[in-house]
Design goal:
The chain is an alpha+beta fold. It is built from eleven helices and nine strands.
Length: 309
């Protein structure tokens, strides 16, 4: 048994359960008695053959495939990996349900991110952020860079552990697996308080060279100034701290969605704006349960060995 989405112009997206013998549309009352909502294969045919014969317009032009197979069954979702939820209309990425531990984690993480944001804003009252000043460095900038990067690492480890991907010691060779699972490189952050700044894309290009620690310039700088301030102090730049704090924002949004991750009518929502985010294929959406699995959404561990979406 597999689940599929049928997207049709001008009508709500449909969810179907299809095997070799039967195709039934989910989410409607008495589909067996509805028009175009239930098909049963005739002898010698598959149900797809029956559908092509009875409703050929669905498969026009010739060779069209109106059904997209979805990866997760209705009601299933990946822990701490936000995706759009398909109901009648696609929703912003989020989690179908949050555990008490998730709720506590979000509250504490928002508090930490707010502290990072306020410190960044305070620095920018002394050093006006621009392309001309982005190479400025100093103790407050270094300290903020270290705090922001350790916060990002906290998110990385937490997501992997929530999906039962546990190691004695994590490295960026493990963390970079989140790039494909969450499409982190598709996110960009802009700053309404500094509208002259270009959007920041801290994860762009991550995982492309086989050297994940060096592909993130802000993260490489963090490691350098943390271990060797005496010789690497100049790498604690304003540019790197903007990227590191933006990476913390993206990790909150990629886990819980922007509404939960940043809150509504909060300082965070005002200071950070998403100017770009992933466009997920329908096959990767989360679906309502439709009574197919359990009454409550069911967590499924993401397979980090699988090809990225």
């Amino acid at each position: 048994m597999a689940y599929y989405i049928r997207q049709v112009t001008c009508i709500p997206t449909q969810t179907w359960k299809i095997d070799d013998a039967v195709a039934v549309r989910l989410g409607i009352t008495n589909p067996e008695h509805g028009h175009g909502s239930y098909f049963k294969a005739n002898p010698g045919e598959t149900v797809l053959d029956t559908m092509k014969r009875q409703v050929p317009a669905w498969f026009e032009p010739a060779g069209s495939e109106p059904f997209q197979k979805i990866i997760l069954a209705p009601g299933q979702f990946y822990p701490r990996i936000a995706r759009p939820i398909l109901a009648f209309e696609p929703s912003p990425p989020c989690l179908p349900i949050m555990s008490r531990s998730d709720t506590i984690f979000v509250a504490i993480s928002r508090g930490q991110l707010t502290a990072l944001m306020r410190q960044l804003d305070l620095i920018c009252q002394t050093v006006h952020p621009s392309e001309d000043t982005f190479n400025a460095f100093g103790h407050s900038i270094r300290n903020l860079l270290i705090l922001a990067c350790t916060e990002v690492e906290t998110h990385w480890r937490g997501i992997l552990a929530a999906n039962k991907f546990k190691k004695e010691q994590y490295s960026t060779n493990h963390y970079v697996l989140l790039q494909g699972a969450m499409r982190l490189g598709d996110y960009a952050i802009e700053f309404p308080s500094f509208p002259w700044l270009a959007p920041v894309r801290p994860f762009e290009g991550w995982g492309t060279s086989g050297k994940p620690s060096q592909e993130l310039g802000w993260y490489a700088a963090y490691n350098a100034v943390k271990h060797d301030r005496e010789n690497k102090f100049s790498r604690a730049t304003l540019r790197n701290v903007f990227e590191a704090v933006s990476a913390s924002v993206i990790m909150m949004v990629a886990q819980f969605g922007s509404i939960v991750g940043l809150g509504h009518n909060t300082e965070l929502e005002s200071f950070f704006h998403l100017s770009s985010s992933p466009v997920w294929p329908l096959s990767h959406f989360y679906l309502p349960s439709f009574g197919e699995t359990t009454a409550e959404p069911l967590e499924v561990n993401y397979s980090f060995d699988a090809p990225p979406p």
